[in-house]
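Bumping with the actual sequence this time:
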Amino acid sequence: MNKKMKKPAILLMFFMLAGLLTAPGNSFAQKLSVPDKIPAKAIPFALTDVRLLASPFRDAMIRDQKYLLSLDSDRLLHTFRLNAGLASTAKPYGGWEAPDVELRGHSLGHFLSACALMYAGTGDERFKKQADTIVAELVKIQEALKAKGANAGYLSAFPEEFFDRVETRKRVWAPYYTIHKIMAGLLDMYQLCSNQQALDTVVKMADWVTFRVDRLSEEQFQRSLETEFGGMNELFANLYAVTGNHEHLRLAHKFDHRAVFDPLAQSVDKLDGLHANTQIPKAIGAARIYELTGEARYYNIANFFWQRVAHHRSYVIGGNSDDEHFFPVTSFSKHLGESSAETCNTYNMLKLTRHLFEWNPSAEMMDFYERGLFNHILASQDPEMGMMTYYSPMKPGSFKTFSTPEDNFWCCVGTGMENHAKYNDTIYFHDDESLYVNLFIPSVLNWKTKGLTVEQTTDFPQSETSRLAFQTDKPLRLALKIRVPSWAERGMRFTVNGKAENLNAKPGSYATIERQWKTGDVLELRLPMSLRIEAMPDDAKTLAILYGPVVLAGDLGKEGMEGLKRFGPYTAEPARVKLSEVPGFVVSDVKKILTKIKPVKGAPLTFTTVGLAEPREVRLIPFYRAQGMRYTVYWKVYSPTEWQQRQVRLAALAAREKAISERTVDGVRIGEAGDEKAHNFKGEKTDSGYLEDRRWRDSRDGWFSYELQVTQGERLTLLCTYWGSESRKRVFDIFVDGEKIATQNLFDNKPGEFFDVEYPLSATILRGKERVTIKFQAHPGSMAGGVFGLRIVRQTKLKMQ
């Protein structure tokens, strides 16, 4: 041992034995072996130190508790046991946990994390007991897999061969993503529930990962990182902090995805078209590596990524992505779809926000955290069944759909189990001499080392006040730092024991009250809320309405929802609704909008438009309450003249559709089984669904075809309809009777609109034929379609829609 290292090593051992070394980057952590090189300026309290009081957040936690306790351990373990050659008579769960789904097993990892979080946050032994039982079974399964011939340490519900497919770039879903959830769940069980078996098991899994990655060249492994791998870099950084094994830190670095990290490190945003939630965990891993190593490159990656996503790529509710992908910010207002704002993304963005706040505590970051927590995470749970959303549709007139208890198990169900188990994790932070009050959520903080208890009671956001009552073992001098939200434009007011405090309470900062606190002291604060507008970055006339931190949604009722499923699908169902016109705001001056929105007497956080909306006025309610109804979050604003012009334009579009219909020789009703059969539909790796009330068909790395009638002696055109806001790049060839007539690229071609493309058909192709076969063939690794309309029409030049 280097002599220079002896004294720090002795101190480190002392801290370990004393149980004083914890991870600022992980408020859930127990004892660690490695301290952070970047000292936290603000430290989160452990979940054991904070308890929720009655509130919508506690209600959501209780619903989540019921769901976790309803899940059957044997059913969660079923495919793990079968994969290891062990007997199982349990009924398998469905959805993404079904025995034939490549992501099977990910939910068990989330379940372990959620139970560990719930145990830490409530002290309820039932969650620890249930999760401990599963860990013990995973130990047996890991040994059985080795005996069956798997490489030592492997543990999963699917064959190890899936990783061969990652390494050879063959088609596979996301095996490292699934492994990450299992490893993270086991590590949480060690850190929060003191389960030594869990740590032993995850260390063996780490050894297995070493075996897999070290047999590849750097170039080969970088290519393998093109397949979603979750937060493997974060996991190994956290494991290194626990074990002190530098091999685990090396593995954390190994999962640096250079194609993503190199631009971010240079403050270059190349996120357009990337799968959003594949990237966010990478940034979290960069943040954790920065804390442990102090390497500035990782700070730059995490910080720049957060700035771009939080401030430039997020909807008003704090969520991001359309169809799971980042899209150009210059066309933001054109990406209001039914598959927008994936819940997993916000789960991960809030994790990333916590890291950045620890380095440099700021109201800016907690404003974003509050936005995502109140308007997306809280809104993502059904208040009756406790089930979770996948997307929170931003499409005007949409409605939320939720999982079912046994038959979905999407990624957002997994993160949903965790979301509602840890609402108490960010309300308070601290340093040696200060207490940060970040969120106004009813709760009790027990700061044991200071001998301080703080009880926060509030009905916020239904009321504008919060009360903090202090109890101390002895008088305690402390700087109380209270977030002054940026939306508190009229300033906050504070009283201590009934006496007004004159503070520098600038919106978007922290107000500080430093004094000696004693038992019986009471701080009361008032958070003045008001209506405000937040416009799209690319369109000042597409906007949302907020009251304080609360996003308000227009209640559009249940029209068209009869017979549709609100539980089970995570997309498509909202798109099937045939709507009457979604109201717009008609006003001569945008500045007058707020004067035409009035509170509803006796109904907190409820408003109504007066002389503003056409063709009818609307009621506005918090988005987190917009369940079981159609709603709109974003509103189009028209002047009276523009509204009239819109009606004329809609009539013109209807006339155009009629003209196309009159020119049509033959057409396919895409996605309708009977009509597709009549047109001899064929295909491989193809799918169909709804968007904007219209059916589509596409193929991922495959093809599909139809036969259509043609006529002789006429100039004919193939007319295809596409969606102009495709958020992932698609490239495909179009063949007519085996002859390629075009290569089509789709990616944000005409944002927010459907558009038609005409492909003239040559006389040579048509000669002597009554029918032709139209084939759409995806380029390797890409997608063909979506095709929303397919017709053979008599040739006449059409104006683009």
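The tokens above came from a reply further down the thread. Residues 125-148 form the longest helix (24 residues).
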